[in-house]
Amino acid sequence: MTPAEPRGDSPPDTDAPTGSASVTTVAPTAPGPPAVPAPTTAPEPAPTDTTALGGADAAAPGKTDAAPVRSAGRPVVRRRRRWTLRRIDLAVHAVFLLAALWVTSGMWVDPAGRVAALYSSDPAQVQFFLAHSVRVVLHGEFPFYTDQFNYPDGVNLMANTAILALGIPMVPVTLLFGPAVSFVTLVTLGLAGTAAAWYRVLSRHVVRLRLAAAVGAWFCGFSPAMLSHANWHPNIISQFLLPFIVWRVLVLTRSTRPVRDGALLALLVTGQAFINEEILLFTALACGVFLLAVLVQRRDLWAAAWRPLGTGLAVCAVLAGALLAYPLQVQFAGPMAYHGLSDTVRDYGNDIAAFFAPGSTTLGGNERANVNLAPNYSEENAFFGWSLSLLTVGIVVWLHREVLVRALAVTGALFAVLSLGERVSWWDRDLFTGPWELLVHLPLLDAVVPTRFGLITGVVIGVLLAFAVERAAALRVPDRRTIRIVTVAGLVLALLPIAPMPLQVTSRPPVPKFITADRWRQYVGPDQTLVSVPVPSMGNTDPMRWAASTDLAFKIPGGYFLAPRNGVTGDPGRFGGRPSGIGDLLEEVAATGRTPKLDDRQRRRFLDELRHWRAAIVVLPLNEPNAEPLRRSVEQLLGPARQELDVWLWDVRTLTSQSA
């Protein structure tokens, strides 16, 4: 991204250089040139039309209409213009918020009763983490580890993206309205906030035209990948710190106060680490590749840039390292720490064809057409569509003389290739081994889901769109109307097929009255668990919602999380805790509806697991699918159940007590 002149609607940024964006070299206000040059061929915006859209300052050097601003009425004119620009900003932010509400409208109808139609496990996990944040704030509970699920082994929350930086600010909402409402609120604000943050940085520091910034920010906030993750992953779509992290890194290349700027960057990095570390790693990698791509083209910049950049990054590393040292120690060496991702997700990669298909959650998308082009519907990290893909190539060819455009193109292409994963495929047919196979075992990268590198490519496309709109508006041609028509038509053809649509939702079973009426309290003690049937797992996360609805007042065994295999700290990761014989058995009954005939060995094994979990009661909702086969199966192990409110109940305290 390129530093540009501060806009007239805000005080000048002391870090931003002065001068028109049309100059061919950077004119810094501080000693030493910036490491990121201004575009080499960008012409000056037209004085009338771009200003009306919130673009360049009318008083910029070389403007023929700047005289009124320099006259005695200058303060009045400038105040009016500032107010105009602020109204434009407010209108853009309102559009982003309305679009986010449109996307999440299906969930807002009934946050507790509706969930993403294609996959429902992650929302329950996030709601559990939101309830954990309440306990951290109100009860002083340890924030980085909990045994409220997967009891007694517990779960390393730092290694499971517990979104503390999102959950703690949402505590008032969670307390007043419940974790389901907090979840939908985070999704809505994640989409709108990410777009707004990119708009802020693009419009203040990258392009002079407000419309160009809005187009680029729109794509960064509402790309098909963001819409895909909006169903399940508020931690991934909450990228509102990333634009500021990127900008502060670029500021360091020409900073006169690198210690201060490095400290500011450290605070942003620390905040993002408690939202999502994987996205933070992506941002660091993308910044590194982008800066290298610029320096390869402009080696003369390195002499002035290395000292402030090195100083600032060192300060950032020391300060952020101090702030994150203990949380990271818990993550990588604390209880239930694991090394490397589960094999289930480690080889997730994009199909090449995924870059040319529209996303499932877009206007032109088709779920059936996208089968096998992505690992699942929550990981559609490309899906730009043919028209946008061709437009992006056209933008790079058109603006290829600009250093920044070439650097962006290299960055986007590199991470697009890495997102293909270990096996490169075309329409689900393996072609050859991808370069990711050489990197997958490196430290930190062994915890990355490769398909998500496509998120970096999406941001690059958003910035390229902003550049293209501004350059098109600044073209000096006799017929400007034709340029406008062509620009608008190109954007419509590229962005309309991937326009966001409301997320598809489905109903989910309500939390049992047995839970909401607190009937469980007369059975379950502080160090005992409530065991659901089926046992909580990646495919059965409803009990996690039950616990979240009570602010985690009771413990449960199992659940959906990442943990070391067999519960041995330091082993490779897997989804779920220790293997459970009875858990697997009941999961099979729930799926098939067939009641097995159980023997004494299986009964003894089930009782051993109940004792290990310190179970107080076993609960089966009456409306659970295949409830009758499940009830008969458990009765073979524990005897007859009794109905209490809307559940079948087995009181097993006498069987699991220490003296039993």
Uncertain segments of ≥5 residues (pLDDT<50)? 1-71
Overall pLDDT confidence: 88
What gross morphology would you assign? Answer: elongated
Through-space gap between termini: 68 Å
- Topology, number of strands: 12
Mind telling me the C-alpha Rg?
28 Å
Sequence of strands across the biggest β-sheet: 7-10-12-11
Q: Helix share of residues?
A: 40-55%
Helix/strand class:
alpha+beta
Beta-strand residue percentage: 5-15%
Largest sheet: 4 strands, mixed
The DSSP helix count reads: 26
Write the layout of secondary structure elements.
Blueprint lengths: L48 H4 L14 H4 L3 H30 L1 H4 L5 E3 L4 H19 L5 E2 L8 E2 L7 H4 L3 H7 L1 H28 L3 H13 L1 H7 L3 H4 L4 H11 L5 H16 L3 H21 L4 H32 L9 H4 L39 H13 L4 H16 L4 E4 L2 E5 L20 H20 L6 H16 L9 E3 L5 H4 L12 E4 L9 H8 L12 E3 L8 E3 L5 H12 L7 H14 L1 E7 L5 H12 L3 E3 L2 E5 L1 H4 L4
Architecture overview:
With 660 residues, the chain is of the alpha+beta class. Helix content is 50%, strand content 7%. It contains 26 helices and 12 strands. The protein has a 4-stranded mixed β-sheet with strand order 7-10-12-11. A hairpin with an 8-residue loop joins strand 8 and strand 9. The longest helix has 32 residues.
